[in-house]
């Protein structure tokens, strides 16, 4: 399943749909584990995303 989330607004809409029961959380569809491809304009943004995911405890590191 491809979500194609490109902005904070897209994230907000997905969360709104999940909360209103229009969509199911991904964890329910993927046995609690799934992967995302993150693309950013530069390395600094990727580092910020990685740091935040680590802070949240949801980054699976190989």
From TrEMBL:
InterPro entries: 3H_dom_sf, 3H_domain, NadR. SUPFAM superfamilies: Putative transcriptional regulator TM1602, C-terminal domain (SSF75500). GO terms for molecular function: small molecule binding. Residues 2-59 form the 3H domain. It comes from the Bacteria. It holds the Pfam family 3H. Transmembrane segments: none annotated. PANTHER family: TRANSCRIPTION REPRESSOR NIAR-RELATED. This is Transcriptional regulator. It comes from Fusobacterium animalis ATCC 51191.
């Amino acid at each position: 399943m491809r979500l194609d989330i490109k902005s904070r607004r897209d994230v907000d809409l997905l969360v709104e749909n999940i909360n209103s029961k229009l969509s199911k959380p991904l964890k329910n569809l993927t046995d609690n584990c799934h992967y995302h491809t993150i693309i950013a304009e530069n390395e600094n943004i990727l580092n910020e995303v990685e740091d935040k995911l680590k802070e949240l405890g949801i980054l699976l590191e190989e």
